[in-house]
Design brief:
Elements: E1 12-15, E2 18-21, E3 24-25, H1 37-54, E4 62-69, H2 75-83, E5 92-97, E6 106-113
Parallel strand pairs: 4-5
Antiparallel strand pairs: 1-2, 2-6, 3-6, 4-6
């Protein structure tokens, strides 16, 4: 994967039984971003899952998601991929349309409970 510069934040923090993940982007293993919201969303969720697994958790532990989309027209396709990643009880979620700091279509951050 392409090495990103050292940025002033932690990827994950555990405070008691609560685990906070920084925003995740849909990078491929080689550091590139695939075209399309579906592929980027899948990659975001897979990267979140891997980070949680490193903490001994899984997507079932996620209680809250904040999702940032750069194009509101992508919402339905994003939602279809996102919806396939979680089961009941579903995490609470906020989704907003915004600009991102890089040319990505989606960024997702989560809070999980151990």
């Amino acid at each position: 994967m392409t090495q990103l510069p050292k940025l002033p934040f932690s990827k994950v923090r555990r405070i008691g039984s609560t685990v906070y993940l920084s925003g995740e982007l849909g990078f491929e293993a080689d550091g590139s971003l695939p075209a399309g919201i579906a592929a980027q969303t899948r990659n975001c969720l897979n990267r979140i899952k891997a980070t949680l697994e490193a903490e001994g958790l899984g997507l079932a532990n996620v209680v809250s998601c904040t999702c940032y989309l750069t194009d509101a027209a992508d919402f339905a396709e994003f939602n279809a991929v996102y919806g396939g990643a979680f089961s009941d009880p579903l995490p609470v979620r906020t989704t907003v349309r915004t600009d991102l700091m890089i040319d990505a279509k989606v960024e997702i951050t989560v809070i999980a409970e151990a």
